[in-house]
Design goal:
Layout: E1 18-22, E2 28-33, H1 34-40, E3 44-52, E4 58-63, E5 74-75, E6 78-81, H2 88-100, E7 110-118, E8 123-132, E9 144-150, H3 152-161, H4 166-176
Parallel strand pairs: 3-8
Antiparallel strand pairs: 1-2, 3-6, 4-5, 4-9, 7-8
């Protein structure tokens, strides 16, 4: 009879992300896990940061195929869900660091205003920002599959052939398109 101890590999545990659920006046009404927020399509806070090069081109990216919402789709802005208790500006800076590997001082983030977006996948209140940054960029968190600098004409062409996340198109594009 084999009496050696049995060792079972432990599955890695993903850290729980906490998200504030907000009402239409952007007041916190509950705090839930990100999974609960997604499952219930609960209204939450989000940030979006358009990165523009000093030459006027826009940095766009294709989302990783494992993302929980709009996997593999193109996006105009870095950003994401604001964590529970986190401010919009802090979330914008965190997302830039996580997704693009850049540190941006608060005074370089140009506020573009607030917007609301709701569809079958999400319900959110977002604050948009613009920053001028030429890189280099390091996509180390696995959320971005591809980065690309585009002119406004190239963006128009890419939009004809690729699918873009709808919240960025609705909330950010009118605020950043110089035409």
């Amino acid at each position: 009879m084999d009496t050696s101890p049995r060792i079972r590999p432990v599955e890695p545990v993903e850290p729980v992300e906490w998200v504030d659920v907000v009402d239409d006046d952007d007041r916190v009404i509950a705090t839930v896990t990100r999974a609960e927020m997604r499952a219930g399509r609960l209204q939450h806070r989000a940030v979006a940061v358009a990165v523009v090069g000093s030459d006027g081109r826009l940095l766009v990216h294709r989302r990783a195929d494992h993302k929980d919402v709009w996997p593999g789709w193109w996006d105009l802005a870095a950003g994401g869900v604001v964590s529970a208790g986190e401010g919009y500006l802090d979330a914008a800076r965190r997302e830039l660091a996580e997704e693009l590997g850049i540190e941006v001082p608060v005074d370089r983030l140009e506020p573009l205003g607030e917007g609301r977006f709701r569809d079958d996948a999400v319900a959110l209140i977002a604050h948009g920002y613009r920053v001028v940054h030429d890189g280099p960029f390091r996509c180390t968190d696995g959320e971005i599959a591809e980065l690309r600098w585009v002119t406004w004409a190239e963006l128009d062409e890419l939009r004809r052939t690729a699918t873009f996340v709808p919240d960025s198109i609705e909330l950010m594009l009118p605020r950043i398109d110089p035409r």
